[in-house]
Design brief:
The structure is a single chain. The chain is of the alpha+beta class. The protein is built from eleven helices and twelve strands. The strands form two sheets. Strands 1, 2, 3, 4, 5, 6, 7 and 12 form an eight-stranded mixed sheet that branches. A four-stranded antiparallel sheet has the order 9-10-8-11. The radius of gyration is 21 Å and the shape is globular. The protein binds 2-deoxy-2-fluoro-alpha-D-galactopyranose.
Length: 381
């Protein structure tokens, strides 16, 4: 990480002509369990990754924002008049946060930002939430704004939903803002209550493989929106404000005729139950007890919510054959990453087995790392 701090600090001085006022960072996340439950007012349990967006910044004397990313060396400049929802390009995640702060009544001023990110893009690890939450940390500090952590997460989500136009839930921005090192974040997406749950897999002789299938996210936006619409329509038919309120899944299913909608509901209701069980098992440090929940979550995403793709299913199956205790896709779906709970020191071996299975099926090589529960957004310098 310090290399990234040095890189943005040096580049900032080169590009802007003076050292930055500070350096901030915000992480990507892995979701341990609780997929597509956040926008159903349900439960999720992500943890933050060491991979993060790192931003050097300082105020400008005019009313514009100049943002440079070292990933591809691109610079974009926008002024207050450009802060209009619907802006396209990567800079929309930065502009959207400034817009959301302004809309909420905060006094925001022009700034220079130079950033770099090592969160894989399009892998379901919340690279966009990391950029939003990092920007929020920067602007809040530069402009001396008093914005509580959960409010930061809400504003970052507002940027994503209303400015960028992606109808996501609250999980990713909450994770990037609120997570603590060594912990998973149990987050109730209705009450916004959070609990930091210790997650020390190494002490239990375990580790969590995060494997990026590198499958392009085809149709991810439209499929995400259609899953969300289906859940909302089902809640309306069931007479509840959100699927979180369905506790007796069998009774609910008898009230629905549409087979696809029934499967969507079954995923959300059972996934919420799995998050609650996972939280209990984590509290009891029964980490191997997580494994059947990971497996059941994956089967539910594959068969009921239908958000997995062949590479993801092959990665999960192969991980299990190679000795993983449990495995599931993580993130919004239609590609991206899987997680697999394995004995400490075995992540590389399991990843190699998956790489071989991919090669035998004609798929390109995956990438992988061990997921380490890390800190949320913070000022580093
Ligand atoms: C994406 C969304 F941004 C989250 O809000 C969540 O719905 C997730 O997909 C699925 O659990 O990351």
């Amino acid at each position: 990480m310090s290399t990234d701090v040095d890189a943005v600090t040096t580049s900032f001085a080169d590009l802007v002509g003076h050292p930055p006022a500070g350096v901030w960072a915000a992480p990507g996340r892995v979701n341990l369990i609780g997929e597509h439950t956040d926008y159903n007012d349900g439960f999720v349990m992500p943890f933050a990754l060491p991979q993060r967006v790192t931003i050097a910044a300082d105020r400008r004397s005019d009313d514009s924002w100049r943002v440079t990313t070292l990933n591809g060396d691109r610079t974009e400049t926008f002024g207050r008049a450009d802060l209009v929802p619907g802006m396209s390009g990567w800079q929309a995640y930065v502009a959207g946060v400034i817009w959301a702060l302004d809309e909420a009544g905060h006094q925001v001023n022009g700034a220079d930002l130079v950033l770099t990110s090592d969160v894989p893009i399009g892998a379901g690890l919340s690279s966009s939430a990391a950029l939003e939450c990092g920007t929020l940390a920067v602007i809040a500090d530069l402009d001396d704004l008093v914005v509580e952590p959960m409010e930061r997460a809400r504003l970052a989500r507002r940027a994503e939903n209303a400015f960028v136009g992606a109808p996501t839930g609250q999980m990713d921005q909450a994770a990037s803002t609120l997570c603590q090192a060594g912990h998973a974040l149990f987050f109730d997406c209705r009450t916004f209550e959070v609990e930091q749950v210790p997650l020390d897999l190494a002490a239990a002789g375990l580790e969590l493989l995060v494997l990026d299938t590198r499958t392009p996210h085809a149709l991810v936006d439209s499929e995400y929106a259609s899953r969300r619409a289906s859940c909302e329509a089902a809640a309306q038919l069931l007479g509840v404000s959100a699927l979180r309120d369905v506790t007796d899944v069998d009774a609910a299913l008898t009230q629905l005729d549409d087979e696809t909608m029934r499967r969507r509901v079954r995923h959300v209701v059972t996934e919420n139950q799995r998050v609650l069980k996972a939280s209990e098992r984590l509290q009891a440090k029964d980490y191997v007890g997580l494994a059947p929940l990971l497996d059941a979550s994956h089967a539910s995403m594959r068969d009921d919510f239908e958000i997995t793709v062949p590479t993801v299913d092959l990665a999960v199956e192969t991980a299990k054959q190679a000795g993983a205790y449990g495995a599931r896709m993580t993130g919004g779906g239609f590609g991206g990453c899987i997680i697999a709970l394995v004995d400490a020191g075995r992540a590389d071996e399991v990843a190699t087995a998956i790489g071989e299975a991919f090669a035998a099926s004609g798929y390109g090589p995956p990438a992988h790392f061990v997921g380490i529960p890390s800190a949320g957004a913070a000022r580093l310098r």
